[in-house]
Amino acid sequence: MKRVPIDSRRKLDNRIAKVLEASGWRESELAYHCEMDQGHLNRIKHGRVQPNLRTALKIAGVLGLPLRAVFSLRRLGAADNRDACVEVGQVALRERT
User: Fold this and answer.
1) Is the pLDDT of residue 94 over 70?
2) Domains defined along the chain, listed by start
3) pTM for this predicted structure
4) DSSP state of 96
């Protein structure tokens, strides 16, 4: 498999913590349903590691959300990083609570 360099001017942000809080799920529950180590999920949640596409899709799928509701790509060096993120709007999580 050919490795593709990551654009160093972009960073993958995630909203895992916010989604977990809104849904009432615990990190350990999400890790269990994603079939991954809780420590690895924690590192993704805090931005210490970037998930590959398969892992990102699995996390979003288990949460029942589209990928961009959980993850967004932002350009580094933007005047306001919030403006560079993909805006998702309100995500309906009421059925999980």
Assistant:
1) no
2) 10-91 (1.10.260.40)
3) 0.68
4) G
